[in-house]
Design a protein that fits this description.
membrane, transmembrane, transmembrane helix, about 130 residues, 5 helices, NUOK/Mnh_C1-like, Helix Hairpins
Amino acid sequence: MSLLAQSAVEFLSTRYAYVTVVLLLAIGLYMMIASPNLVKKIIGLNLFQSAIFLFFIAMAYADGGSIPVIPTEGGAVGEYASPLPQVIVLTAIVVGVSLTAVALALIVRLYAAYGTLNEETIREVANE
């Protein structure tokens, strides 16, 4: 194998979380842009959000890190993992679920008003 192929294989085998992030981002973005169905757009948005959450968690990983509680009998020893990214992701999950609920409620109202979930059809009927 060439040096470039070896480095690509090494990158994919050691940084698989980042490869997963890129795949989820691409799939979610494609679903939001390409699909005319409003529910599929919401699913794409949730995939995109999940990729961002995974990115934050993967960036916060500290190899050999311990909990950020300093023992009373001794000083700080070693590397500690920051709890801040987990807190931010937990808050973002709550916001994402709320956003999904509101979006689905709006989609139910659009379906009741227009009888379809197709974005182009709703635009045509609304502009008439």
